[in-house]
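Changelog note: in this version the structure field was regenerated for every chain. One regenerated record is shown below for reference.
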Amino acid sequence: MFGKWGITARLLLIPVVSAVLLVGALAVMAVTQSRSDDFDRRVVAKQLGEARQYASLLDRALRLHTRYLDLATARMASEMGPREQSGVNALLGETLDLQAEIDDLRAVAQFGDVDRIAVGQVSEDLTDFQDVIARLHDPRTVVELRGDVVESNARFDRIGMGLASLIGSAQLRSDTAYHALQKELRRSRTAVATVLLAVIAATVFAIVWSRRTITRPLRGLATALRRFRDDPAQPVQAAATTRDEIGEIASGFNELVQTIQSREQALEQSARMLREGNGKLRVEVMERVAAEARLRRSQELLEAAQSAGGIGVFDLDLHSQLLRGSSHFFAMLGLPPGTSTITQDHWLGLVHPDDLEALATAYGEAINQGGSYAIEYRVLRPDRTTCWVGGSGRVIVDEQNEASRIVGSIIDITRRKSAET
């Protein structure tokens, strides 16, 4: 799946995923904290308000009962005066106010989670308590007043127990809310811990994944490079398992290694062929040098023999009209030492005019018939001296059976011609 991703994208994926997960964790923590704070303030404030309200009612009921006892004691000691009558009326008014608050609480209890039975009982007891207070306006004996006080104590005890029950109920609901808050906090902590573990797991996975997809291929490529550096001739190939930049580098490296090794093999083969060619050439050169040495020795021996016998040899190429001869041949023609080649016209120009026609005839017949010739003729040397020579030659034909060369020789017969005359 990630093989098509480049190295840059994969390296960027690690911090991006970590950042996204961290932001998610922070968001979960923020939402959880906000919910917890709101829940805490709302529930605790409500339960504290109820508890304070019940405690306030209990305190007011206690003060009302205390004032009643004071008024009842005063009534038993003497007749009710205006002052006592005013105190009873005020006590009844406050009791009515307390009754109104209890009734409001009772109305709220119809829709809320307040103990409706306890609130109703407290309201009924307050009504009875108001009746006991109202009796202070009536003519009462001491015994009746003492009975009213006993009844008042009983009513107050029931009112106190009812309010205490409401306070306990509020505390119980507060404890329940507290436990719910703790549960919410545990759930939020679990969610945050889960997200953080996911961040850690994602980071570890990204590290392992990057090691597998980046570090390991790079290590393999480095190993292949070292092997190729140590021994360029051995077969080396980097594993190109991915299609990213590393895969392209590995493929390029493999192609480069194949190209270099192919060129090295070609160079090695060329060097081997060159060494073999140089060896053969060295043998040929040595053989040619030896052959030239043998040829020089043969020429030297031939020259010595020709000089001793007074014979000069020549080789005339009929196509190029060039004549090559021995040193003794050119010496008899009176040419300078070192001359090795002259033209056919130059040679015929050295023949005595009186003998030129006879030589040309013999020369032409030999060429036409493919045979040989032998003739005596005079040579006019450049120093104006005359030399008689006996010349002979043989025509050499080529593959087409056409005359191509004349190989022949001349010998100095000047002494014999002088003797004959």
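Spot check on this record: The mean pLDDT is 76. The CA atoms of residues 272 and 278 lie 10 Å apart.
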